[in-house]
Recover the amino acids of this structure.
């Protein structure tokens, strides 16, 4: 099965390492993936705060383009950014649930000769790797089992809420299972899907930093060596504001925050440069140290 | 310690500053409310269940930001339903909602609270009644116009225009982080844009035109 790839704006900027590591990972796992031509911004949480129908039309253009590019049958559109994933999923759901929304959006699309038939399935790379590809196959690719590395899997909000398409809305486990498959140890922590503050770190910083701090403190308390995320904004908040959080709240937190694709890539022996590790502000200490190699750990 | 609860009026003698200068009404009369507000919000926000809220407070308990809000989500729902339009649209609550959808999935009445917050943001932005230079509506507007023009967002320019329009001094504070991001290749200074901009513009204009025809 072939996948179409929807990068979204963040993966071309702050989340560049996410794109690099995801594509490198898919290549290593031999999962075919191709970029969606001329995709536009999903609208995120901001566009819908101004105009809702336009926001749906904006997202629907991407769903339609995917349908066109794939030709016949249903198509899987992979959106790694949580905001893109949610907005595209939500648009899809609302178009099929509310006929009035669907009519307005399709009327607008028709003005340029497009029509969305509802054949696009929005997928997240975590979902693709766990449920389509399979963790037993992932484990076979592991060349450097990350033994003894304690990992806090941070999912963030929008990949599981409000539409728990592939995992539980408050206590998901997909990434934890990935972590086990690559030989590391997922820690049990209750803040997996608690909000990191989102764009509040740029707007109402006091509130945003407090939310991120709660996550970092809990991960630290539970002995995490590293936090992994699957959202570019969560990664940015938890990594880039760590210094500021330490200054402001007199903390001494020092935890690297990686994309789950980077951690998988490290375990599979993909060169660090291809994974964008050099772009991190806090580099994981185990990349060069614990590369004991050899044994893959079975799930 | 006395077991008699401290009633403010009992303290008046000791602290003359507490004497109310002006007698004013502490409640609103029904005639001053917008009684159709609840229904109109419900209609716009897929909130058909809004009117059946049981005020259990699960939304407020699960909200990670409720301790920064002037009215908790539960109170906002009650106020929307009862027609406290002015208070709701002037509240900080609607701007603090970070769209984490925690309340949306927890609500025992399946009320789409996040959609309601979006509907309230839109109404507040449309009538311009938000606090001046408030960063969140400014961010939404800047994002909206950038995406409409280019089809994509460029994070670096979005942030620069946000700071220029809200708090230019904050930009100095962020300059170091921006430089580090740029040095690590995580901040692009090139305007991102799609190829078929005209196509996108036509779609979005068509949506706007239909609204002009009297449909909402």
């Amino acid at each position: 099965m072939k996948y179409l790839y929807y990068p979204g704006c963040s993966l071309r900027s702050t989340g560049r390492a996410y794109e690099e590591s995801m594509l490198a990972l898919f290549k290593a796992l031999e999962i075919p993936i191709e970029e969606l031509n001329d995709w536009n911004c999903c609208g995120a949480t901001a566009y819908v705060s101004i105009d809702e129908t336009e926001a749906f039309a904006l997202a629907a253009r991407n769903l339609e383009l995917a349908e066109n590019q794939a030709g016949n049958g249903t198509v899987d559109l992979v959106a790694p950014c949580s905001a893109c994933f949610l907005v595209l999923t939500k648009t899809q759901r609302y178009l099929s649930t509310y006929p009035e929304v669907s009519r307005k959006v399709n009327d607008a699309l028709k003005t340029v000769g497009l029509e969305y038939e509802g054949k696009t399935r929005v997928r997240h790379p975590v979902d693709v790797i766990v449920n389509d590809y399979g963790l037993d196959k992932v484990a076979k690719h592991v060349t450097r089992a990350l033994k003894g590395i304690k990992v806090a899997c941070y999912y963030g909000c929008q990949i599981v809420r409000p539409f728990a398409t592939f995992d539980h809305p408050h206590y998901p486990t997909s990434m934890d299972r990935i972590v086990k498959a690559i030989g590391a140890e997922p820690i049990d922590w209750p803040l997996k899907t608690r909000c990191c503050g989102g764009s509040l770190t740029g707007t109402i910083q006091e509130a945003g930093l407090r939310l991120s701090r709660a996550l970092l403190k809990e991960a630290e308390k539970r002995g995490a060596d590293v936090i992994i995320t699957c959202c570019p904004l969560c990664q940015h908040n938890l990594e880039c504001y760590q210094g500021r959080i330490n200054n402001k709240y007199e903390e001494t937190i020092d935890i690297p925050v990686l994309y789950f694709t980077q951690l998988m890539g490290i375990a599979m022996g993909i060169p660090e440069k291809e994974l964008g590790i050099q772009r991190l502000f806090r580099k994981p200490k185990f990349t060069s140290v614990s590369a004991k190699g050899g044994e893959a750990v079975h799930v | 310690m006395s077991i008699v609860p401290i009633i403010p009026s009992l303290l008046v003698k000791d602290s003359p500053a507490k004497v109310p200068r002006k007698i004013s009404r502490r409640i609103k009369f029904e005639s001053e409310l917008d009684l159709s507000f609840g229904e109109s919000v419900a209609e716009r926000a897929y909130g058909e269940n809004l009117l059946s809220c049981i005020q259990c407070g699960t939304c407020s308990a699960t909200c990670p930001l409720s301790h920064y809000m002037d009215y908790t989500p539960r109170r906002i729902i009650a106020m929307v339903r009862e027609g406290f339009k002015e208070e709701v649209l002037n509240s900080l609550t609607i701007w603090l909602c970070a769209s984490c959808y925690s309340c949306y999935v927890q609500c025992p009445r399946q009320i789409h609270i996040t959609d309601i917050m979006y509907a309230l943001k839109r109404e507040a932005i449309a009538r311009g009644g938000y606090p001046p230079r408030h960063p969140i509506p400014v961010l939404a507007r800047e994002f909206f116009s950038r995406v409409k023009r280019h089809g994509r967002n460029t994070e670096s320019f979005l942030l620069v225009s946000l700071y220029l329009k809200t708090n230019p001094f904050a930009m100095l504070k962020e300059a170091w982080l921006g430089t580090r991001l740029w040095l690590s290749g995580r901040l692009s200074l090139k305007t991102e844009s799609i190829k078929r901009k005209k196509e996108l513009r036509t779609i979005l204009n068509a949506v706007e035109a239909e609204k002009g025809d009297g449909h909402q």
Summary: Chain B touches chain A through 60 residues (CB under 8 Å). DSSP finds eleven helices and no strands in chain B.
